[in-house]
Design brief:
Chain A is of the alpha+beta class and 604 residues long. Chain A contains 17 helices and 18 strands. Among the domains of chain A are: 135 residues, Flavocytochrome C3, Chain A, domain 1 (Alpha-Beta Complex); 118 residues, Methane Monooxygenase Hydroxylase, Chain G, domain 1 (Up-down Bundle), CATH 1.20.58. The relative contact order of chain A is 0.17. Chain B contains 13 helices and 7 strands. The chains are: A alpha+beta (604), B alpha+beta (300). Chains A and B meet through helix 3, helix 4, helix 11, helix 14 and helix 16 of A and helix 3, helix 4 and helix 5 of B.
């Protein structure tokens, strides 16, 4: 095929966070040869940063909880733009997936009668998040990692995948990438590929995401001709750190509010009471007294507005800061110090305690935190079949953050960890079924590989071009200022123009040093993904002329019922790759069965 | 003899035991004469000495740049990458002390770069070197595959069958296990451990502190049925640890590795090996546990 190192498997999973691990475990368990590929060391994927918990209607704390309530909460949180079937499967299967982790060695915090305890979170009617203090993601990734190791799944670490390759019939059959440690290229062939590459936050200046979140999977799917949906739906988490500047954007878990913390402005007012949207009015407390009673008695009180869905809270904070009622460093105050004992705070939120103590010199048991919105999560992504996670291109599957549909226009906290488990497993099954039914060895075109390798190497051989760091900084500035939490048509058009210029500049990058563990070169090869995904986000945002969930248009502040019936689908048709245009078109959402629609209306 | 570390902090033990810089390899030390001899000048500048090199050798490169409020060492490294040293290699992910990627030796002390604030370090150039115990790949990046190989040798969690209404565990019974599971696999404990820090020959027969807490976590798990005590004694080299507590001192998660994991494991292992009456008693009490041979062979 080529002179490069090559590996052949039945199934290749790209990305070794929660979704990728869970998919690989399922596929390997079926007896198929499975390998995991990740850009970082094994066990360092972004799942590790998830804090508050994994949402599952186990009913351990509130026996009246069940999948139907979880389904309802998820759909309403997503402003009904969710793929209903995904939301249903997710709510139904999450409890089994969490229990399964316990059988694999996870140690979740317990109730008094020895079961897994659950905490309150935004948009969830009942305390529903299984957790381990505020380091739930670490527990999940380690459990899955140790399970994968015990199953002898091959893991290729610090390997960057550049592009997916089809065979002559258009089935995804190969991938080409390079080892970060040596800079040598490597090819993989397999009967099915699962994308589990996570998010896209690194295109914004202030983000909770790590360097890995460059949207590689989103971009590779687009370049392979797959559909992506809802690219305009980017979640800005309401509570990121705002100071010191070097940690701006770092996540402050919603668990702070779940455990009693409240948001205050510079006047000391709990301002969230002033930002309750009509959709949530009936179930939200109107007074501070009722909100405070709710923590201990959900049955006789309505929930605190501090725990409205994330899009609502982020917009409210944004408005308070704009109105001049912000904190000294441009955020608002998140206060748990005055509301819970120091001992309670340290036990329930140990890593928040450490994070503020060590990075900001703030003792959160004594002083309020300063917080503000941070780019956190991509709701949009690869369009998949709800049951199998098959993309619209044969041989390709997607699960976790890279997949779209499950969360609609806004994700509820805790629903991403459960998403990883439910759809990671289903993607593993879907890919295994597909691989078993596929005949012949997967074959790819050597010439195509050569072209991809040449493109990746170009910045190393070029003199006098610009630094990938400079280009990245300009991209982040563009997305932060023009495609941020509040958007307007003219700004989005300006963003698209600037993205076009950035794309041209990306053809003229220069990287010094060799190929061995060269972060400048690594960034240069991540930039094509970031540019493609950023363009898709801006295009989707321009097309959706309404405000819904994480997508807010200042020039179209209301939700439009007609647009609530469509997904904006984006795809490359004839021309494909980083240079080719991406077409946007509205397509109707899947029709929800009447009995599920009924659930949405109950309890309003 | 290279310069001795100047930091007179909690890791003096660690420094005494392990940190002896080689000739063409960065030591953990490195807070060189320059640190004491010349003041960094105005406080709005920071001076950095960052080890640059590859398996063939290398040296400390010196940089100076503007100081910025509230920065951690990793921020400064990132600013160097964006300016003077675009190909400077380092690992990082979360930048919040949660993933354990950015381990290095800062002024001779094994630490996470993302959790070390510049303003808490003593005045003078800040020295950043890669972890000494692992082979160099480039600059601050080392080959930590040793740890992933050891992980494969730990027999997996193997629970009792699940009762119809699910597993029940009391919080008090899992708290020790939860302490060990806070481990972010930064491998700083492995780096500082003198058994392998300058003794490559010990690596094949020594699991290291990270894996002693893994063994301890499984040993203390209320539901687990594997008995790994003989394995951790024979193949894990638990006896080679002479409890100098260097690992505990560098752990960014503040896990009491020595007191809560290694010492109790040593006691349990000794009991298993040399105390037949106690062993008989425990065998009756803990009939779920499988033998070391079964555990090693069975994996699951």
């Amino acid at each position: 095929m080529s002179e490069y190192e090559s590996h052949q498997y039945d199934i290749i999973v790209i990305g070794a966070g929660g979704a990728g691990l869970r998919a690989a475990i399922e596929a390997q368990g079926r007896g198929l040869r499975t390998a995991l590929i990740c850009k970082s060391l094994f066990g360092k994927a972004h799942t590790v940063m998830a804090e508050g918990g994994v949402a599952a209607a186990m009913g351990n704390v509130y026996p009246e909880d069940n999948w139907k309530v979880h389904f309802r909460d998820t759909m309403r949180g997503g402003k009904l733009l969710n793929n209903w079937r995904m939301a249903q499967l997710h709510a139904q299967e999450a409890p089994d997936r969490v229990h399964e982790l316990e059988a694999w060695g996870a140690l979740f915090d317990r109730t008094n009668d020895g079961r897994i305890t659950q905490r309150d979170f935004g948009g969830h009617r009942y305390a529903r998040l299984a957790h381990v203090g505020d380091r739930t993601g670490l527990e999940m990734i380690r459990t899955l990692q140790q399970k994968a190791v015990s199953m002898d799944i091959d893991v290729f670490m610090e390997c960057k995948i550049l592009r997916l390759l089809p065979d002559a019939q258009g089935r995804i059959s190969g991938a080409v990438g390079y080892w970060r440690a040596t800079g040598e290229f490597v090819t993989f062939t397999a009967k099915a590929f699962v994308l589990a590459t996570g998010g896209i936050g690194k295109s914004w200046m202030y983000t909770s995401n790590s360097w890995e979140s460059t949207g590689d999977g989103h971009a590779m799917a687009i370049w392979a001709g797959a559909d992506v949906i809802e690219m305009e739906s980017v979640q800005f988490h309401p509570t990121g750190m705002v100071w010191p500047l070097s940690v701006r954007g770092l996540l402050v878990t919603e668990g702070v509010r779940g455990d009693g913390g409240v948001l205050r402005n510079s006047e000391g007012t709990r301002f969230m009471f002033n930002y309750v949207a009509p959709m949530f009015r009936a179930e939200t407390a109107e007074t501070e007294e009722e909100a405070d009673r709710w923590y201990d008695d959900h049955a006789n009180n309505r929930r605190t507005p501090a725990l409205l869905p994330r899009d609502e809270v982020a917009r409210a904070i944004n408005a308070e800061v704009k109105a001049g009622r912000g904190s000294p460093h441009g955020g608002v105050f998140l206060d748990i110090a005055s509301r819970r004992s120091a001992e309670y705070i340290r036990r329930r939120l140990p890593s928040m305690y450490t994070q503020f103590k060590e990075l900001a010199g703030v003792d959160i048991t004594a002083t309020p935190m300063e917080v503000g919105p941070t780019c956190h999560y991509m709701m949009g992504g690869v369009r998949v079949d709800a049951d199998t996670e098959a993309a619209t291109v044969p041989g390709l599957f997607a699960a976790g953050e890279v997949a779209g549909g499950m969360h609609g226009a806004n994700r509820l906290g805790g629903n991403s960890l459960s998403d990883l488990l439910v759809f990671g497993r289903r993607a593993g099954i879907g890919a295994a079924d597909y691989a078993e039914g596929r005949t012949g060895d997967p074959e790819v075109d050597g010439a195509e590989i050569e072209a991809i390798v040449a493109e990746a190497l170009a910045p190393l051989g070029r003199n006098g071009g610009e630094s990938p760091y400079d280009l990245h900084r300009d991209l982040q500035e563009t997305m932060q200022t023009l495609v941020g939490i509040i958007r307007t048509g003219p700004e989005l058009e300006e963003a698209l123009e600037k993205l076009g210029v950035l794309r041209e500049r990306s053809e003229n990058l220069t990287v010094t040093g060799g190929r061995v563990y060269n972060p400048a070169w690594n960034l240069a090869t991540d930039l094509p993904s970031m540019l493609t995904v950023s363009t898709a986000v801006a295009q989707g945002a321009l097309a959706r002329k309404e405000s819904r969930g994480g997508h807010t248009r200042e020039d179209f502040p209301a939700a439009d019922p007609e647009l609530g019936k469509v997904n904006f689908v984006q795809r490359q048709t004839d021309d494909r790759g980083p240079d080719a245009p991406i077409i946007v078109s509205p397509e109707p959402l899947p029709e929800m069965p009447a009995e599920l629609r009924q659930l949405l209306e109950e309890g309003q | 003899m290279p310069d001795a570390p100047e930091s007179a902090d909690a890791t003096d033990d660690a420094a005494d035991d392990g940190i002896e810089a080689g000739v063409d390899r960065p030591g953990g030390s490195g807070l060189g004469a320059a640190a004491g001899a010349e003041s960094p000048g105005a406080p709005d500048r920071v001076a950095m000495r960052v080890w640059r090199g590859d398996p063939g050798g290398g040296e400390f490169a010196e940089y100076e740049l503007a100081a910025q409020d509230g920065e951690v060492v990793l921020d400064v490294i990132h600013r160097l990458q964006a300016t003077d040293a675009p190909d400077l290699a380092c690992r990082w992910n979360c930048k919040a002390g949660k993933c354990g990627s950015c381990s290095a030796e800062i002024n001779g002390r094994p630490r996470l770069m993302c959790m070390t604030r510049m303003d808490e370090l003593p005045e003078g150039p800040v020295t950043v070197a890669p972890m000494r115990t692992f082979p160099i790949i480039k600059d601050l990046v080392t080959d930590v595959s040793f740890n992933y190989e050891v992980a494969k040798t730990v027999p997996a969690f193997s629970p009792v069958p699940e009762p119809p209404d699910g597993y029940r565990m009391q919080q008090v019974d899992i708290e020790r296990g939860q302490e060990f599971r806070k481990c972010i696999e930064c491998f700083l404990c492995q780096d500082v451990c003198h058994v392998i820090r300058d003794h490559e020959e010990n690596k094949p027969r020594y699991a290291g502190p990270r894996f002693f807490i893994r063994f301890a976590e499984l040993e203390m798990h209320p539901l687990d049925t594997n008995d790994r005590r003989e394995l951790v004694r024979q193949k894990g080299g638990l006896g080679m640890c002479n409890i100098t507590k260097c690992c505990t001192e560098v752990c960014p998660e503040h896990i009491k590795i020595t007191d809560n994991a290694i010492i109790p494991m040593k006691e349990r292992v000794v009991d298993a090996a040399y105390d037949p009456i106690g062993w008989l008693g425990r065998t009756i009490m803990r009939r779920h546990k499988r033998s070391a041979e079964e555990a090693a062979a069975g994996g699951q």
